[in-house]
Amino acid sequence: MYALADCNNFYASCERVFEPHLEGKPLVVLSNNDGCVIARSQESKDLGFKVGDPIFKCKDIVRKHNVIVRSSNFALYGDMSRRVMQTIRLFSPDVEVYSIDEAFIELDGLAGRNYEKIMRQMRAAILQWTGIPVSVGIGHTKTLAKLANHYAKKHIETRGVASIPKNADAMLRCTEVDDIWGIGRKWSEKLRNIGVNTALDLASMDKENIRRSFNIIAMKTAMELRGHTYFRIEQAPEQRKTLLRSRSFGKPVESWHELSEAIASHATRASEKLRNENLVAKVLHVFFHTSLFNRTDPRNSAHATVELIPPTNVTHTIIKAALNAAKPMWKCGFRYKRAGVQLIDLSSGPVQCSLFDSPEEQEKDKRMMALLDAVNSSMGAGTLHFAATGFTKVMQMKQLQRSPRYTTNWDELPECLCGL
DNA sequence: TCTGGGGTCCTAGGACCC
DNA sequence: TCTGGGGTCCTAGGACCC
Predict the structure, then answer these.
(1) pTM of the prediction?
(2) Residue A351: which domain range?
(3) For position A17, what pLDDT does the model report?
(4) Residue A253 CB neighbour total at 10 angstroms
(5) Could you tell me the distance in Å between the CA of residue A333 and the C1' of nucleotide B5?
(6) Total domain count for chain A?
């Protein structure tokens, strides 16, 4: 048996923990650069806000309904997530943290006990200790637990916890294909075209037919709806395979000078992350492009892939590779909107050096990176940085309405929680 | 004026091997 | 006139997730 614990309207709930007066009011959280809506409170969902809505197109409705608008505060959400997960682990050791706001829990270790009762206790503890409301779904497979969770969120009478009953047909029948975990927009469209509208319809489909028409994942999903386990809990996360750092610019970038600083910054952040996870990259991909939405400006999109020989995680090596690959692609006269650096073919194993590499140089780089990371870790990110990342404000994000980083920054601790 | 930032997996088709 | 049968690896593109 599996349970899925999923925080309700997570980012919105995090904002409310420290500003309880926002309770009951429509609230949306924006993406980087205050671009799109990425999270909504129930009230703003009811007003029709969708994830991905550009906020500038919602001005009227924001004004009309006094919608509270917040910039994203990932320092806060990340820390709140950690607290929620920590609490979940007190109730079962077999936990897979699936995303920032949800976790699968394997219940077999609690065999013989009343799962629903335990999950209700867990839910109450999370609410009391972190202030975050959570919904829990219980089922024989992860897909069914997801489905039960969806049911719990939709039906108040469940009081946040729902189990798939012995005969799941009724629950499957009232679940649309779009709401099944693993069935996205394209597939649900295709399924509806052949008359498959509910989870029960999908579960009744011929196994091989699903595999042929879709793929093996869709087939496994359908089998999971029937109660056959195909997806298991993954406690130790697999080693990552790629790492991407990219960002839209607050203002369009028109000079190589600014673009190169952005690329160098992304390369820096990607390298730091790589070292943090004890990995090296063998391949680097760099890209930049103009706005995908602007129809009047000339468009341009450039990308290049280069091999890193030998594989590395050294910041200046990666900056140099990224800039060398990007420079020849730079064209004057375009308003670039986004740039990024992706590291591919990551490994943790010993590095195969080339015949001409100097072990002394490598040792030097390694010591230098260790020092750099130590300084930046104790004195703040970016204290020591490469000149290539520059001093212009090209990388500065527009975040006009970010709440304080209450739990991770000494200068921003809450001093008075009115209303608590 | 203004539209996010990460990831994973699968499949088909082509290049290559014997 | 007629042209085999078996593999592997890589890549791009497309689907999905949060």
Answers:
(1) 0.93
(2) 242-357
(3) 96
(4) 23
(5) 27
(6) 2
Query: Are A415 and A314 members of one domain?
Result: no
Q: Which contiguous run of DSSP H or E holds residue A247?
A: strand A242-253
User: What CATH number does the domain containing A37 carry?
Assistant: 3.40.1170.60
Lookup: nucleotide whose C1' is closest to A7 CA:
C18
Buried b (16+ CB within 10 A) or exposed e, A350-379: eeeeeeeeeeeebeebeeebeebbeeeeee
Q: Are residues A325 and A420 in the same domain?
A: no
Q: Report the pLDDT averaged over residues A51-63.
A: 95
Q: How far apart are CA A75 and CA A82, in angstroms?
A: 11
pLDDT in tens, A302-313: 999 999 989 999
Using the CB atom, is residue A337 less than 7 Å from strand B?
yes
Q: Is the dihedral of CA A400, A401, A405, A411 positive or negative?
A: positive
How many CB atoms are closer than 10 A to CB A410? 6
* CATH assignment of the domain containing A335: 3.30.1490.100
Q: Do residues A352 and A404 both lie within one domain?
A: no
C-beta separation of A226 from A207 below 8 A: no
Q: What percent of chain A has pLDDT over 70?
A: 99
Confirm whether A273 is domain-assigned: yes
A255 beta carbon to strand C: under 7 Å: no
Residue A366 structure tokens: 């390694």
A74 vs A30: CA distance, rounded Å: 11
Q: What is the pLDDT of residues A82-117, one digit of tens each?
A: 999 999 999 999 999 999 999 999 999 888 899 999
Which nucleotides on chain C have any atom < 7 A from a protein Cβ? 14-18
A294 touches strand B (CB under 7 A): yes
